[in-house]
Amino acid sequence: MGDHKKWGSWTRSEQNLPAHVPALDGIRGVAVMLVFISHLHMILSPELTFREVTPWKFINRTFEAGFLGVDIFFVLSGFLITSLLLKERSSNQSGMVSRFYKRRALRLLPALYALLIVDFFVSRWENFPRDIQWRTTWHALLYLNNWNIVWNFGATQDDLGHLWSLGIEEQFYIVWPIVMITIAALKIPPKIAISLTAIFAVFVTWHRLDLWNNGVSWLFLYVRTDARVDSLLIGATFAYVYRHYRVPPKILNLLATSSFIGFIYIKYRFGSLPLHPFLFQGGFTVIAVLAGTIILAAAEGAWFANRVLISRPLTVIGKVSYGLYLWHLPVFFVLGRHVTSGPKPLRILIGIVIASAVTSLSWYFVEKPFLNIKNRKYGNVPAVH
Prior knowledge:
The chain has helices spanning about 1-10, 20-40, 55-65, 65-90, 95-125, 130-140, 145-150, 165-185, 190-215, 220-225, 225-230, 230-245, 250-270, 275-300, 305-310, 310-320, 320-340, 345-380. It is mainly α. It has one domain (about 15-375). The protein is globular and about 60 Å long.
């Protein structure tokens, strides 16, 4: 009875939660910068790794661990999507799933289509093999680029290779709202929903370990939906906690700070290519739990680092993170193929400036107009990307 009262004292009304949390924009900014920085060496040459660019192991580990940024995106996406769907469910709005997919389309498709159109003409100019280009483009349009890497390894277009992560997220978005509707229809209590979601994540972890033990390539495991969706499920688990329970701020601050230290350790201990076996043997799940703890603490305003996360540079980068993620790698690859001389720092600086400029054009002339349409038709809700 005493335990029940203690647990019950942590419950809260969903109506008390803010519609927008700037600190999560900051986390999105950190995530995209981790990915952005890890790809800078492509500006010098698509064939190089950081170990061939700098002689310092510490710097190499710092720049090579971009996969942590992708993992943060996965957890944050699962957290935000689940939070949004739980909010709509609590307000008893009809057509929840239909509105969800329409909002996703207005947010994601315009910028993706713009990228694919530009990439088509650049590829024609570069005389890129048409069969590979068409195959990669069609898989990208269908959000199957991660499976294209598995099915057609060695015959994919590197400029669009980073779209594999968007494929995993969109495949999750197709299934997860239906799962949540089923949970709601069955009137499953929050505690049970949290447990079930966590169990699903553990099952994916076990499945990935089984594939690893059976000799599946690390690269294929890295991009397969069935081997990576645990991060999104863990984000969803933390969203259920966030929407229904309030963890004491002091506890959250301690947990988030400890998680951040764990993050740094993993980054420098295991953050090199090819990815360390630890990551496939449970490491990705550990990273997701650490990221989810930080996200929960940031959403609650309980982490001491929130003052950094809500700083204008990070929130601005977070706001344009989707466009920056889409455009940076194609820009880097093109520069790496065509700008092959000159001081390395200058070439990297040029790449950063061009990628930033293209991202700004994407934001103001493609993404923002469609975001305004989305907000007018379906309300201003937190962006997932």
